[in-house]
């Protein structure tokens, strides 16, 4: 399988799972390493529910928004450092060793948070978890990729993406399960220690990556592992590929150990690989995925749904769709190809963002009017100060929620189920909210009632359905197979770091953007960035479907621009008229 490119002659998805009967060792390697993806997803998703109960236990957290943001964002900050350090540790100490370190960090972070007596301990625990997430985000797919046959490599690496999204879905389920338990948030955050212990035990019994071992001169160990992964006729070709790759590195640099930034930038194949790999990771975040995953309840409320229950239920639905999309990716990644899947994904994302842009524009421009009579129905002291002092009679719900004054304002919708009729603009606090609910009305503080709200739900669902199989998983797969062996850890770490930096930038700017320019313009910006991402994929990202990892390097060295992504890749023919499996198209 590793000796050349392969035509698709059946379902790679079925072959991947039939492998459990023929060679369960490969799946054992893949799923053991993939538990790191489960931890990655769980620890990034669980905090949204846990924070609600942390605020109840710690008054300082409840009173200070910046402290809430710090508890959430310190995991992302830790992940940036973890991804950068992980790139170095995977090359220096090995892929398996880095996964073991990540497990220790996961366990330590979960234990610190579960036993926290104050916000400071929670922040420290989130940093530890973030370091583990950062290391796991680039090491786990790299380990799986280097221990997988080329034909099913994409499907096996996709299992890591599935476990990430599955971890996020599990986090929402755990949040719901422990809402009535004593020490609610401690259980939510502490549960992550269990899979960390399981993976640590499993990885102790598994070998190091065979390609890393070969790169370090431990050829006998590498060959023994490869013989357990490949059939007898395939393993000799794989060993020869590795010999050629390492020998070429030694000839090129005179040493197989020293890696420098200058060397990375001077080597055409590495430079082109970095452009594709880092670019994909950055655009994965810039198309707005974390605005949907982190803020889906807020987005639903912005679209006109006042109920917290509806907002929380959608969080579970979106994470479920995300996990389902990862399963779709496992099926199609080696059948369709990386580049085609990316293009289809981005076209769908662009259309979904267009729907969301239109919905929020209509929601904002056609919100219910504010009625003086409806507002006067409540005590005068409850009227929004800005509305009371205004001489204009053209107030609507949107203007009420954005009113500047001594107090924030909310909109109490008309009674009788007619949400689009004029309502009241009142001061926003718990007393007024309860008074509004007491009359059987809905209380809005983030978005306004709208007849188009269900279209926002449709847009969010479509966004996840299109994003997850392509832009959700393919960037990690491409980064696990696009770099030359000696630079793989460093380059993968750089790409993962770029992903987390972009993640932090988008997550921290979304709410500020919606307040400054409006939700519709914010989604329009994400749509424009998605168009740029599509152009980038067409021009800069190569198709690596079915290619041996060592062959990808040769393809990048002679890279050609190939915009006809739907066409099958061309193959060079050697002097004997045999297909050598060399893909010259990008």
Please give a structural write-up:
The protein has 586 residues and is mainly alpha-helical. The chain has three domains: 12-230, MFS general substrate transporter like domains (Growth Hormone, Chain: A, Up-down Bundle); 270-367 and 452-560, MFS general substrate transporter like domains (Growth Hormone, Chain: A); 368-449, no CATH class. Helix content is 71%, strand content 3%. The chain contains 27 helices and five strands. It has helices at residues 12-22, 24-45, 47-57, 59-63, 65-92, 95-114, 119-146, 153-177, 184-190, 193-204, 210-215, 219-229, 232-253, 261-266, 268-286, 289-302, 308-336, 338-365, 372-376, 385-389, 397-401, 430-438, 453-472, 474-481, 488-517, 519-540, 549-557, and strands at residues 409-412, 424-427, 443-444, 571-573, 579-583. Strands 2-1-3 form a three-stranded antiparallel sheet. A two-stranded antiparallel sheet has the order 4-5. Strand 4 (571-573) and strand 5 (579-583) form a beta hairpin. Helix 1 crosses helix 2, helix 5 (65-92) runs antiparallel to helix 6 (95-114) and helix 6 (95-114) runs antiparallel to helix 10.
Brief overview:
The protein is mainly alpha-helical. The chain has helices at 12-22, 24-45, 47-57, 59-63, 65-92, 95-114, 119-146, 153-177, 184-190, 193-204, 210-215, 219-229, 232-253, 261-266, 268-286, 289-302, 308-336, 338-365, 372-376, 385-389, 397-401, 430-438, 453-472, 474-481, 488-517, 519-540, 549-557; strands spanning 409-412, 424-427, 443-444, 571-573, 579-583.
Sheet with most strands: 3 strands, antiparallel
Give the distance, in angstroms, between the N- and C-terminal Cα atoms: 21 Å
Oligomer kind? single chain
The proportion of residues in beta strands is: under 5%
Note the total helix count: 27
Spell out the CATH superfamily of the largest domain.
MFS general substrate transporter like domains
Share in helix: over 70%
Transmembrane segments: 29-54, 66-85, 97-117, 123-144, 156-178, 184-206, 274-296, 311-334, 341-360, 452-478, 490-511, 523-541
Domain Major facilitator superfamily (MFS) profile: 29-545
GO cellular component, one term: plasma membrane
GO biological process, one term: myo-inositol transport
């Amino acid at each position: 399988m590793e000796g050349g490119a392969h035509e698709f002659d059946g379902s790679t998805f079925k072959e991947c799972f039939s492998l459990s009967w023929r060679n369960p060792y490969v799946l054992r390697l893949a799923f053991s390493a993939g538990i790191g993806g489960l931890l990655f997803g769980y620890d990034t998703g669980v905090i949204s529910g846990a924070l609600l109960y942390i605020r109840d236990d710690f008054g300082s957290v409840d009173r200070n928004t910046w402290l809430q943001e710090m508890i959430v964002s310190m995991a992302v900050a830790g992940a940036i450092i973890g991804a950068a350090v992980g790139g170095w540790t995977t090359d220096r100490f090995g892929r398996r060793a880095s996964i073991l370190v990540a497990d220790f960090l996961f366990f330590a972070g979960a234990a610190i948070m579960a036993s926290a007596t104050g916000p400071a301990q929670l922040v420290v625990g989130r940093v530890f978890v973030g370091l583990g997430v950062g290391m796991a985000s680039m090491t786990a797919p790299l380990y799986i990729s280097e221990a997988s046959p080329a034909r099913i490599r994409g499907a096996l690496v996709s299992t890591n993406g599935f476990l990430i999204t599955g971890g996020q879905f599990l986090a929402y389920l755990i949040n719901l399960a422990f809402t009535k338990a004593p020490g609610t948030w401690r259980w939510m955050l502490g549960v992550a220690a269990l899979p960390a212990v399981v993976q640590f035990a499993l990885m102790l019994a598994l070998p190091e990556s065979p390609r890393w071992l070969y790169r370090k001169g431990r050829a006998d160990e590498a060959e023994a592992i490869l013989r357990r992964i490949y059939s007898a006729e395939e393993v000799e070709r794989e060993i020869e590929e590795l010999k050629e790759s390492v020998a070429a590195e030694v000839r090129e640099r005179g040493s197989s150990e020293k890696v420098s930034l200058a060397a990375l930038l001077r080597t055409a194949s590495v430079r082109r690989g970095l452009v594709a790999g880092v670019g994909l990771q950055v655009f994965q975040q810039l198309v707005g995925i974390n605005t949907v995953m982190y803020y889906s309840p807020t987005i639903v409320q912005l679209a006109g749904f006042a109920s917290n229950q509806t907002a929380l239920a959608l969080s579970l639905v979106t994470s479920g769709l995300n996990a389902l999309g990862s399963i779709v990716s496992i099926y199609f990644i080696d059948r369709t190809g990386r580049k085609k899947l990316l293009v289809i994904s981005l076209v769908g994302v662009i259309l979904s963002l267009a729907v969301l842009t239109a919905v929020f524009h209509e929601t904002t421009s056609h919100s219910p009017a504010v009625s003086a009579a409806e507002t006067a129905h409540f005590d005068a002291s409850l009227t929004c100060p800005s509305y009371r002092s205004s001489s204009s009679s053209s107030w609507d719900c949107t203007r009420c929620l954005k009113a500047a004054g001594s107090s924030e304002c909310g909109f109490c919708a008309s009674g009788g189920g007619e949400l689009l009729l004029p309502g009241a603009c009142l001061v926003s606090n718990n007393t007024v909210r309860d008074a509004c609910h007491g009359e059987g009305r809905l209380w809005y503080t983030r978005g306004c009632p709208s007849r188009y709200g269900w279209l926002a739900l449709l847009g969010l669902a479509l966004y996840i359905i299109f994003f997850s199989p392509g832009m959700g998983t393919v960037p990690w797969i491409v980064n696990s197979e696009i770099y030359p062996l000696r630079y793989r850890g460093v380059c993968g770490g750089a790409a993962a770091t770029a992903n987390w930096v972009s993640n932090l930038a988008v997550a921290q700017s979304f709410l500020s953007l919606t307040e400054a320019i409006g939700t519709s313009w914010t989604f329009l910006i994400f749509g424009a960035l998605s168009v740029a991402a599509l152009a980038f994929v067409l021009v800069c990202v190569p198709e690596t479907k079915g290619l041996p990892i060592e062959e990808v390097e040769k393809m990048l060295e002679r890279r050609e621009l190939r915009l006809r992504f739907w066409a099958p890749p061309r193959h060079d023919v050697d002097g004997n008229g045999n297909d050598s499996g060399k893909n010259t198209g990008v």
